[in-house]
Amino acid sequence: MVLAVIGAVLGNRVTKLLAAVPIAALVAVAVVLLGGSSAAARRAKPDKVHAHASAVARVLRVGTYRRIAGQFSTIQAAVDAASPGDWVLVAPGDYHEQADHRANPGPQPDTTPSGVVISTPGVHLRGMDRNQVIVDGTTPGPGPACSSDPSRQDYGPKASDGSSLGRNGVLVWQANNVTVENLTACNFLTGSGRSGNEIWWNGGDGSGQLGKLSGFYGSYLNATSTFFKDNSTAAAYGIFSSNATDGTWFQTYASNFSDSNYYVGACQQLCNTTLDHVQSEYSALGYSGTNAGGQVIIENSEFDNNKDGFDTNSQNNDDAPSPQDGSCPGGAISPITHTTSCWVFIHNYVHDNNNPNVPGTGVASNGPTGTGISISGARNNTVMYNRFVNNGAWGIILVPYPDTATPPAVAHCQGGINTGQLCLYDDWGNEIAHNTFQGNGFFGNDTNSDFGEITVTAAPTNCFHDNVDSSGTVTSSPANLEASKPRCRETASTPPDPNPSLLNQVACDTQFFASLLPGGSSPCTPGSNYPKATGVVMHPLPSGLATMPNPCAGVPANPWCANGSHARTRRRSHHKTVTIPAGGTRTIKVIYPDALRFRNDRYSGAIRISGAGAKTVKILKRGSVRHGYQYRVTVRNSGRKPARVTVTAITTRR
């Protein structure tokens, strides 16, 4: 059914180009399989980011922290004053940074307006609290941070044609070894420029070249948007790198984007990028990686409640050169996979990516709802030791990617099949191994399963082995992929499989052809059913996202920090020791010392019980006394002998 419709829509153009009608139809539909976006064996760690240090690194402080004022009131002013190797520390606050509204917005192109621009190499930007240091894209004024009020949104400076360019949040522009840590960026919206990115390491977006940004690190970051009017202005990307190499993102969270929460692209086989302990929710794509290959590691992370959880793809666009190829540079062997594949998706949790009510723009908006991972025209990637749970359509899908758009001057269909009308990238050489599946394919449509595959050219085969399903049977489309393709990268024994049944279901799920058909809806196989969008829902940031344990770690001594710790941190304790008979209980009074004096600052209290058999029965606050807060702690000795029990109250000023 879908094959006939696609043929009617596209006419003879694709038929003549690709000769075989089933393959032509496959190619036409595969364009919807999400992956596109225009916009490692070695694991980089925080101490591996090489700072371009000045003789003596300075600490430039923004805002007021624990009653000690910094030298600057805006982040941009401190960044402008920074030299290579300097630190910019930011106190908790709501910062409406507006570098893009000043007369000289920065060295980046005029079409890349940004609230904060860092173009000095080796600068370290760090907030003192991940959840309370907010780089806010809304306009200054009363009201909550990251306001969803339409009147508070800032659509950026005007272009020459009068359109709004949109805004980026923190832009690292062609500067090596810049770190951004421990803060939140929100509500930087899309416009007619290169915009809508909350935190962006940009080595020359659209240039097709590398070499102007090497070394980047981001940790304890939040990126989100609270505002949605329509997809033309929706925030597009959360944490983003383009034309950049040698980077790590660690302990980050992103949500509510119209393209993807995380983006790594345009870095050829030289990305050398790691995502570790990231969480991605409520977006069209949890991750997008166009033409991002070589050493890329995504590990220990969670992708959930997106439309499509994760995508990596080849594309003939301004993220040139293509393709996406996970092969180790120079034919090296990965110490993780022990093969020539250095692109590794490992120890991740991919679940419940069934959400159609997310923002969505461009190709990303056509993603198949209910998919854990899409591998689109991508090669030589390894997906191993992950959990795929409750993705209603497919846990993993491997498909070709045909790019029908007119390519920019920097793109020449490298690695693809150039027909003159489109650039076709097939998927091959990918390994799906040792994964655990549970509850995938519950939409119940034909081909919905743990994993599915479409191939159109004779190439090194994808392979599937040692995967398990909690039901006892791994499901796939075509059936029995584990039996038919257990060995990787074979070229002679396995012919391509256009898999028209899977093709039909993908067309039904995505409704890609709805706008092209008189009836306004792509046909589905009778009985097929996929979730439909009923309205975009923007979700708040989760509470309690872990902030950096010690934001002064590694920072030179300064009024906010001394010797790598908070300068004014104080710890006081008060304890009492008593003897409790076997099986008996005692109520012991202890005081949190100095808690009254610290009450206007952040402090924490802890009560510790030590002694054989000691068990806390009840802790009751009895109010304030001269030196702090008094607590009555009832302790039971559950042992068979009398025990000396110590109760200690500890007050820590942070």
What do you see in this structure?
With 654 residues, the chain is mostly beta strands. The chain has 6 helices and 43 strands. The protein has a 19-stranded parallel β-sheet that branches. Strands 6-9-11-13-15-17-20-23-26-32-35 form an 11-stranded parallel β-sheet. It has a 3-stranded antiparallel β-sheet with strand order 27-29-28. A hairpin with a 2-residue loop joins β36 and β37. The protein is globular. The protein starts with a helix and ends with a strand. 54% of the residues are buried.
List the topology elements.
Layout: H1 2-10, H2 12-18, H3 21-30, E1 59-62, E2 64-65, E3 68-69, H4 75-81, E4 87-90, E5 93-95, E6 114-118, E7 124-127, E8 133-136, E9 168-173, E10 178-186, E11 197-202, E12 214-224, E13 237-242, E14 245-255, E15 260-265, E16 273-281, E17 285-290, E18 296-299, E19 302-304, E20 308-313, E21 343-346, E22 349-351, E23 371-376, E24 381-384, E25 387-389, E26 394-399, E27 401-403, E28 417-418, E29 423-425, E30 431-433, E31 436-438, E32 449-453, E33 463-465, E34 468-469, E35 476-477, H5 481-484, H6 500-510, E36 561-562, E37 565-566, E38 570-580, E39 585-593, E40 603-610, E41 614-625, E42 628-637, E43 643-653
Parallel strand pairs: 1-4, 4-7, 5-8, 6-9, 7-10, 8-10, 9-11, 10-12, 11-13, 12-14, 13-15, 14-16, 15-17, 16-18, 16-19, 17-20, 18-21, 19-22, 20-23, 21-24, 22-25, 23-26, 24-30, 25-31, 26-32, 30-33, 31-34, 32-35
Antiparallel strand pairs: 2-3, 27-29, 28-29, 36-37, 38-43, 39-42, 40-43, 41-42
Helix pairs in contact: 1-3, 2-3, 3-6
In a few lines, what is going on in this structure?
Helix content is about 5%, strand content about 35%. The protein is mostly beta strands. A hairpin with a 2-residue loop joins strand 41 and strand 42.
